[in-house]
Every structure is written in structure tokens, then in C-alpha cells.
Inverse folding.
């Protein structure tokens, strides 16, 4: 039975019921789960996720966050995959009842495991269809359900849910880039100035590979305040907190290509009195000729000279991708991004 399609309103460990072989498409970094070399996917291209009404009552912030994260996967252009939402009302869960259940359970308190995705499949030799995927979130963790924060010591339920849903649709861990499917929290962190918990560039390529859908090219550049710091790990970009007029500061920034084709663009660097970086702000510099292939994410450093004519005070500093607006993008609101901390100009 197909239920209502989800509309907009973890780090985890993958425990499997069979041997899993990591498999990498040589052209891209994303990894996906396999059985005997076959991609593990939902053959129909969609599946129902049954949210526990005991753990996450309908209308609760948990429920809203889960549905929004399913929607983010559904909304990836040029992927035909869709999650649908159902309700698990019996207060129980089983890894072998054929229903994809989402629930809270006690895993390890405030330990290293935030959530676990359990996957089961059968007829591996003939079919690689996933039979069931359950997602358990650790009830012992300190969670919050709103937009991801750069500073909270609690865990973003949205970022972890997005990661686990990525496992649920067939993606594996990808530690070679800043990624939603990165092993360790915060799994690449949020994107853009609205701190969107949404699939990063490489994960988008991964879901497109598993569930391809033909169509025209998609262009979408995005900025992020996180960077890859090592295998599986991520951290905030290093950004200045003090600047002196007549001297330069170093700004670290990350951009990614969420689209399906290579884009060429320029990057503006600005000093702003508010956190909305725009062409109305004071331009400190421009990088011309930047380009990013589909699925690419990169972190760079930019030295920026602070003119002596700047009035001393506290400012936001940040980037505006495609500042001249020459790339027509599916989402234009994730191009501008202020650094996490404001900078004091002296
Ligand atoms: Zn994981």
C-alpha cells in the first residue's frame, strides 16, 4: 500500500543481515551498499517509512523533522526516489516484519552511536531489492529538532535523520569529502544561510546514481560553513574574529555543486552589517573563474584586505557565490553565507 507522499511541512552504524561489500563508482566519491555487486535499492524507487506514534507522535517536532528530512531526499532533482510516510501505532518494532519502522530506543546513552539503520534483504543472487530498513534513534542522546546550530552541544535530530535516511535508501558511508553520508556527526553540517539540513553535493550524486531520472541539467551552487578535516570528520571553517584596517585577514570558505553539470562562476567576498551577504555590502574581493563539477565540494582560503576607509566596528564577513548572477540555479538562496562568528574591525 502506498501511503501519502511526504511533503514539506547520525552518526550511525549500519548493521546488516548479510555480507556487505563496499562499492565505489570510479567517477564519483559517493558509496552505496551492495549485495554480490548488485546495488541495494528499492526496486520500485520508493518505500514507506512507518514513524512510531509512541516515540514520535504525529504533529510533534520529531515527526515534522523526520518528514522534512524525507522530503529533502525526495526533492533532489534528477532522482526519482521517494519516501512515503506511514504510522506505526502498535508501540513495538521488529527488524523482520517487513515494515520500515522509525523509532527511539536506548542504544548507548550519550555515547558514540546516535542512531542505527538496520537493513534486510533477500534473494541477493537474483535481486538486490531491499526488503526492510528500520531506523533506531538513541533515546539517551540530547537532541534538538530545529534548524542545525553551529554551537549547540546537543545533537541535531535533522542532520542525523538525514544521514540515516540516506542509509535507508541505499547509500553507504562516504568519508572522502564533506558529506551528508560522512561517518561522524555533524555529517557535513547544514548548507547555506538558512542552515538547511539537506543532502550535500556528493550524496545527491549518489541518490541520482541509485535512482536515475532523466531530465534537463540542474545547476545549483551552495555555500557551507563546514569543511572536511580528515577521514570521516568535519569541522567549522576557520574564520577571522578580529581584523585590522590596512591589513589582510584569511577567510576559509566551502562551496559545493549540488547540480548535475559543471558550473563556472565567480565568488564575491563581502563585509556586511548583517548576516545577509549581498551585492549591497562592501566588496572586499572577487575570485573569477571558479568552477565545480557535479558533486564537487571544496574548501579554500582567501586573503582579504580590509581598507582603511572601513569604519571600525563589528561586522559579518562572508561569501556570495555567483555574485554576478550568471548561473541560473534551482535554488538561489543558498549562495550567500556569513561566517559563523562576526569579525571586529579595528
Ligand atoms: Zn552512518
Amino acid at each position: 500500500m502506498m501511503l501519502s507522499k511526504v511533503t514539506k511541512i547520525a552518526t550511525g552504524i549500519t548493521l546488516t543481515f548479510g555480507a556487505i561489500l563496499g562499492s565505489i563508482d570510479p567517477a564519483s566519491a559517493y558509496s552505496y551498499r551492495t549485495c554480490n555487486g548488485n546495488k541495494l535499492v528499492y526496486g520500485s524507487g520508493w518505500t514507506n517509512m512507518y514513524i512510531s506514534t509512541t516515540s514520535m507522535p504525529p504533529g510533534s517536532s520529531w515527526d515534522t523533522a523526520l518528514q522534512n528530512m524525507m522530503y529533502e531526499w525526495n526533492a533532489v532533482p534528477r532522482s526519482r526516489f521517494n519516501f512515503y510516510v506511514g504510522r506505526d501505532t502498535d508501540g513495538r518494532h521488529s527488524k523482520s516484519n517487513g515494515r520500515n519502522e522509525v523509532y527511539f530506543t536506548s542504544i548507548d546513552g550519550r555515547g558514540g552511536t546516535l542512531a542505527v539503520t538496520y537493513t534486510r534483504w533477500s534473494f541477493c543472487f537474483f535481486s538486490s531489492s531491499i526488503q526492510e530498513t528500520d531506523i533506531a534513534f538513541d533515546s539517551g542522546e540530547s537532541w534538538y529538532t530545529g534548524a542545525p546550530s553551529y554551537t549547540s552541544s546537543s545533537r541535531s535530530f535533522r542532520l542525523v535523520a538525514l544521514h540515516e535516511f540516506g542509509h535507508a535508501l541505499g547509500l553507504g558511508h562516504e568519508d572522502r569529502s564533506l558529506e551528508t553520508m560522512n561517518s561522524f556527526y555533524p555529517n557535513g553540517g547544514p548548507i547555506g544561510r538558512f542552515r538547511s539540513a539537506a543532502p550535500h553535493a556528493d550524496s545527491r550524486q549518489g541518490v541520482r546514481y541509485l535512482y536515475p531520472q532523466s531530465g534537463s541539467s540542474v545547476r545549483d551552487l551552495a555555500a557551507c560553513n563546514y569543511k572536511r578535516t580528515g577521514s570521516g570528520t568535519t569541522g567549522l571553517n576557520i574564520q577571522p574574529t578580529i581584523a585590522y584596517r590596512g591589513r589582510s585577514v584569511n577567510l576559509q570558505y566551502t562551496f559545493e555543486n549540488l547540480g548535475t553539470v559543471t558550473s563556472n562562476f565567480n565568488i564575491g567576498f563581502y563585509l556586511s552589517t548583517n548576516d545577509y551577504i549581498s551585492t549591497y555590502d562592501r566588496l572586499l574581493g572577487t575570485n573569477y573563474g571558479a568552477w565545480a563539477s557535479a558533486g564537487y565540494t571544496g574548501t579554500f582560503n582567501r586573503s582579504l584586505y580590509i581598507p582603511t576607509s572601513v569604519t571600525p566596528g563589528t561586522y559579518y564577513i562572508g561569501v556570495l557565490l555567483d555574485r554576478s548572477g550568471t548561473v541560473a540555479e534551482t535554488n538561489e538562496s543558498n549562495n550567500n553565507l556569513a561566517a559563523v562568528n562576526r569579525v571586529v574591525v579595528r
The chain has a mean pLDDT of 90. Residues 221-345 form a domain with the Immunoglobulin-like fold (CATH 2.60.40.10).
